[in-house]
Input
Amino acid sequence: MFENECVLNEFMVEYMNLLVADIDESEFDHQPIEGFNPPRWTLGHLAIYTDYALRATGGRFQCPKQWHRSFARGTTSDQTPEDLPSKNELIEKIIDGFSTVRDRCQQMDPSAVAARHSVPFLSSTPLTTVGHVVSHLMTTHFSGHLGQLSAWRRACGRPPVEPKQAAETKSSNIPKP
Output
């Protein structure tokens, strides 16, 4: 199950690594435009949403509770605590979280995938099943936030990144699971 979503998710994890590879920890909270989410908030948000994908596949949350309070839907970067997770911690949680989600997706029972989801803020959307929610978290939700990281890069004067750079990045010091 979820063969296409798994391939797309792996592609997006590589793209995320490219987007943040040249961002120094000292820049991780910079807002080039008021209201723009900086990289730390965006990655924190993606990390906790791997937990929601894990839960939807029958797994357990892996991120600290404080991350859920700081990076949840509706929070802003000015609400983050003093004890912020590092760039590497966030990237590792996203990589590990999505790796586990992809593994769990391969083992899901078709009846669980077809079951009605219980996400209140998605209840009036076309997403009606657990499978829809898992697919969304692995692909469209993830890609939307990667677009924000890309826009942040451009607003800070950085060049765009290309997927073909992934092979070069794999040999860099970006943490891998």
Remarks:
- The chain has a mean pLDDT of 89.
- Residues 3-170 form a domain with the Four Helix Bundle (Hemerythrin (Met), subunit A) fold (CATH 1.20.120.450).
